[in-house]
Amino acid sequence: MAGRSSALSRRTFLVSAASVGAVVSLGVSRPLRAAGTIKPGPASALIVVDVQNCFVDGGTLPVKGGAQVVPVINKLAGSFENIVVTQDWHTPGHASFATTHSGKKPFETTQLAYGTQVLWPDHCVQGSDDAALHKDLKLPTAQLIIRKGFRKEVDSYSAFEEADRKTSTGLAGYLKGRNIDTVFVTGLATDFCVAWTALDARKLGFTTYVIEDATRGIDLNGSLAAAWKQMADAGVKRIQSSDIA
Ligand SMILES: [Zn+2]
Between the ranges 10-14, 16-20, 52-56, where is the mean pLDDT highest? Predict the structure, then answer.
């Protein structure tokens, strides 16, 4: 279900990795930086966005390669004192579901009270196995699970602010109340919930990193490249998991 350009860029990447005879490594486009130079301290939090059954193969809205982020995130967790997990957590008949709007198909858009909404297959319904965190995600030291998108009429890609751009999830207050000023965003999907979370984090004054190889994108009509550009413009730092000490 990923967009055509995703399949294309993936193929291009695989070809270029193969042509240099490398074992496939996601560090190909990494800027030059010595490995393991960023050491998260007590004022940093790892945010693990929506690593749920719905967003991996076998789920209702699978992101290509989504499950591959799980071992990367499990390993990263050892470097963080503070970990926050999010779950997309929709009501049945949620406004973001194509089935809720007659005549609409998944990945089309519609107008909701707060603006344009991409319509998705029914996914991550509250309490379903589909909405559960991935079974191999091992984050015993995570301190908070924040659920989002649980209001029937409002979607929420961001872990901080719902799609109406007014309703706070409370996460900023939680982090600031704990003197956390830096966030490292991981999870699914890069161009939607990860990007919106990172952009809001910047807007709210957090130093913000996205750990690229701990994310995977959907890439709907070029949304992945657009999201990276928007994040770069907003001062989000794009790093790889090997940059973390
Ligand atoms: Zn959703």
Answer: 52-56
| d(C-alpha 223, C-alpha 227), whole Å | 6
Q: CB within 5 A of ion ligand 1: which residues?
A: 88, 149
What Cα–Cα distance (Å) separates residue 13 from each residue in 10, 21, 213, 237? 5, 13, 14, 22
Name the nearest CA neighbour of 48 among 164, 211, 181: 211
Which residues on adjacent β-strands are paired with residue 88? Answer: 148
Distance (Å, whole) CA 69 – CA 170: 26
> How many angstroms separate the alpha carbon of residue 149 from the centre of ligand 1?
6
From 122, 193, 200, 219, the catalytic residue: 193
Given the residues 50, 130, 200, 213, the one annotated as active site: 50
- CA gap 83, 141 in Å, rounded: 7
pTM for this entry: 0.85
* Model pLDDT for residues 50-91, shown as the tens digit of each residue: 999 999 999 999 999 999 999 999 999 999 999 999 999 999
Q: How far is CA 11 from CA 189, 222, 229, in A?
A: 19, 15, 21
> Can you tell me the distance from the alpha carbon of 206 to that of 217, in angstroms, rounded to the nearest whole number?
23
Active site annotation includes 54? no
pLDDT value, residue 6: 47
Based on the residue annotation, tell me whether 200 is a catalytic residue of this protein.
no
- Point out the catalytic residue in the list 54, 122, 124, 148: 148
Specify whether 124 is catalytic.
no
